[in-house]
Amino acid sequence: MTGPLAGLRVLDLSAGIAGGYCTKMLSDSGAEVVKIEPPHGDPARTWDPSPYDGTTRTAGMLFHYLHAGKKSVVLDHEASEFRSILEGLIPRYDVVVESDKGLAGHGLNYAAVAAESPPLIWLSLTAFGTTGPYQDYLGSDLVIQAMSGWMYDGGAPDREPLQTGGSMSEYITGVCAALAVSAAWTHRQNSGEGQFIDLSSLEAVHSTTGYAPLARSFSGERSAYRAGQGYPFAVVPCQDGWVGVNVLTPLIGRPSVPSCGAQSCSTIRDSPLPDSARWSRQRSRPSSRIGPNSTLPTNSSPPTSGACPSRSCPASQKLSSSLNIVNADSSQRCESNQERSFDGPRAPFR
Fold first, then answer.
1. Residue 49: how many CB atoms within 10 A of its CB?
2. Which of 261, 299, 263, 264 is nearest to 283 (CA)?
3. 300/304 Cα distance (integer angstroms)
């Protein structure tokens, strides 16, 4: 393997998405990853879309996406020799990744193993951490989103809080975990010391909560995202599908664009925005956020989604994952990694 983490050896004993995505990122960066699976396979093998029928070892797209490029070893957690086999394997690796304290029942933890392997890096992925009042509680993507505040800011103002789709909390946890392992590996190269990494999914997701909702939660104000922010910020219909619009003033990173509100609406529509002065500043715009059944405030008909991407203001087509892979930018920058057994997207960094 080549890459910045070439030479790093990882033993992946986790199950589910967070650990799998963490070790996928490490593998994409050059690490050698060996995944330990029980005889019936990792649970992700059975998750849709999957042809897994309970008897064959054919796995679905999610499993291939998370574990392409890794080596696999089958090890029965219920076998009497399970612990002794792991005790022989662990010293050969630089990093051990576990989820939900899965090895504790076998008497294996960082304190017990580090005495024999001081440089070892041990990553423990749990919902709420290995300390604190919730350390023994189970969690899920829905629970983590609800407790972190993400759901509080999701959904329409007059509806229930809305969960973000796609196992968002698991992938955020995986990214934070890969960053933590990389930092611990750098520390070990400089000092020779190992690390115990206690990573809470709740803390990882909570760290991504926007500053505005967080500030409002302390004051008791209603979430700005659900109450309406006074500028176009929604997914709205157009002639050939849907378009996402996020109008900011001034455009982030481009202070030379003083009135992004008026400019972007003119960019993605065929005629100028009426009463453009009213839309030139965020506080002077209409107070109600446009919703999924709304149209942009102009007299012309909606354009096609292809007219939306703009160099001056943020607007885009709403693409499916498969369409995103073949769109012009993705196909040039993030071409499929055909060096792997599974033809999936490359790492999102260079």
1. 7
2. 261
3. 12
Phi, psi dihedral angles at 316 (to 5 degrees): -150, 165
263, 322 contact by CB (below 8 A): no
Q: Which amino acid is at 183?
A: A
> Residue 139 has which token pair?
């969690």
User: At 241, is the pLDDT very low, low, confident or very high (cuts 50, 70, 90)?
Assistant: confident
Find out whether 66 and 86 touch, Cβ atoms under 8 Å: no
Rounded distance between C-alpha atoms, residue 331 and residue 343, angstroms: 13
What are the tens digits of pLDDT across the range 40-86? 888 888 776 666 565 665 677 888 899 999 999 999 988 889 999 99
CATH number of 9-206: 3.40.50.10540
What does the alpha-carbon distance between residue 202 and residue 183 come to, in Å, rounded to a whole number? Answer: 20
Predicted confidence (pLDDT) per residue in 266-285, tens digit: 444 444 444 555 545 555 55
Cis peptide before 43 (omega within 30 of 0): no
Which pTM value belongs to this model?
A: 0.74
The answer, yes or no, to whether the previous bond of 118 is cis (omega within 30 of 0) is no
Spans of all domains in the chain = 9-206, 233-318
Q: Is 106:78 a contact under the CB 8 Å cutoff?
A: no
17-28 vs 168-191: helix axis angle to the nearest 10?
50
